[in-house]
Design a protein that fits this description.
Layout: E1 8-13, H1 19-28, E2 41-43, E3 49-54, H2 59-64, E4 70-74, H3 75-84, E5 90-95, E6 101-108, E7 123-126, H4 129-138, E8 144-147, H5 155-158, E9 163-168, H6 172-176, E10 179-188, E11 190-195, H7 201-222, E12 224-231, H8 235-241, E13 249-252, E14 259-266, H9 272-280, E15 284-290
Parallel strand pairs: 1-3, 1-4, 7-8, 7-9
Antiparallel strand pairs: 2-3, 4-11, 5-11, 6-9, 6-10, 12-14, 12-15, 13-14
Bound molecules: phosphoribosyl ATP and zinc ion.
Length: 296
């Protein structure tokens, strides 16, 4: 593989659950990605950046070795890798808000599962042996961990192990196999990871720029711009109720003395309940608008 030393490299999943969402996030951050979904790499037109499309399992190695300065990968994959290679050189910079799931112990429906104690002396099939071992050690439990590379949910029926530990999002797969999720070993989502190997000053600056942009996109995903009207006596209470807003802008409404317009960037989710509480506190003409870009 030819790696252009002067360009920044970002490893993302080639195909799978994180592939499209990783690309979308980079596009939202303003990177113009050339087409080439089926190739191994793609150029970014407007920055000296190349994307590398790889198996998610290879992303930690690429980043730790400095072949790619950045990567987007599930926390589950990264933490399993880190337990295997404790001296690996990378750092997690941000959670990316997609690929949410949990690595969970699951037991057949009829098992009387009473916490980790139930696993003592037993067998657990998983694709994440090191994370499971850490969980067991943390609870002082001795048990056998059986590594499987896929179809872990079949292990109890095949007689490989009475328990499994696997990723769960909706839980439909477990249910279809007569299994019930129990203890959580790890909460996971896609994360942005950066190499700790030394990079040139140019690359470090470009990396900071990229990070700033990604943080901007992530912040806007949750954030909303709220506008409302309110009488003077309600302003203090309303300012308290605005989710995650700091220092709202308050301007007098022309022609209606004692009434004000309040504008604020809300950095937490705005629910219907929030609007009802604001209304009850005296707000009217409440508008909630998406924010397209934001630089903190
Ligand atoms: O080819 P490559 O090696 O790159 O991909 P992969 O097949 O190893 O990974 P992929 O694309 O399946 O998942 C990539 C990442 O997505 C995982 O490492 C997790 O970080 C994240 N993720 C989020 C999930 C799930 N949700 C998920 N539900 N990964 C796997 N699953 C499995 C789950 O174990 C079950 O078998 O999907 C199935 C459906 O889940 P339920 O609970 O909705 O039934
Ligand atoms: Zn994989």
């Amino acid at each position: 593989m030819l790696v252009d030393k002067d360009r920044l490299h970002i490893a993302i999943q080639k195909s799978g659950r994180l592939a499209d969402l990783s690309r979308d996030l980079l596009r939202d951050a303003g990177l113009r990605i050339q087409n080439g979904k089926n190739s191994l790499t793609a150029r970014v037109d407007n920055f000296p950046i190349d994307l590398m499309f790889v198996r998610d399992d290879d992303i930690p190695t690429f980043v730790a070795d400095g072949v790619c300065e950045f990567g987007m990968v599930g926390r589950n994959v990264l933490e399993e890798f880190a337990l295997d290679q404790p001296e690996a050189r990378f750092e997690i910079l941000a959670s990316l808000g997609f690929g949410r799931c949990a690595l969970r112990i699951a037991a057949p429906e009829r098992t009387d599962y009473r916490g980790p104690e139930t696993l003592r002396g037993s067998r657990i099939a998983t694709s994440y042996p090191r994370l499971v071992r850490r969980f067991l050690d943390g609870h002082g439990i001795e048990a056998s961990v059986v590594k499987m590379n896929g179809a872990v949910e079949l292990a109890p029926r095949l007689g490989i192990a009475p328990f499994i530990c696997d990723l769960v999002s909706t839980g439909a797969t477990l249910e279809a196999n007569g299994l019930v999720p129990t203890d959580i070993v790890l909460e996971s989502e896609a994360v942005l990871v950066r190499t700790l190997r030394p990079v040139t000053l140019e690359k470090a600056e470009l990396g900071e720029n990229l990070l700033r942009r990604l943080e901007g996109v992530l912040a806007t995903q949750e954030s909303k711009y709220i506008m409302l009207n309110a009488p003077e006596e309600a302003l203090a209470r309303i300012a308290e109720l605005l989710p995650g807003a700091e220092a709202p802008t308050v301007v007098p409404l022309a022609g209606t003395p004692g009434h004000y317009a309040v504008h604020a960037v809300c950095k937490e989710s705005v629910f219907w309940e929030t609007l009802q509480t604001l209304k009850a506190a005296g707000a009217s003409a409440i508008l909630v608008m998406p924010i397209e870009k934001m630089m903190m």
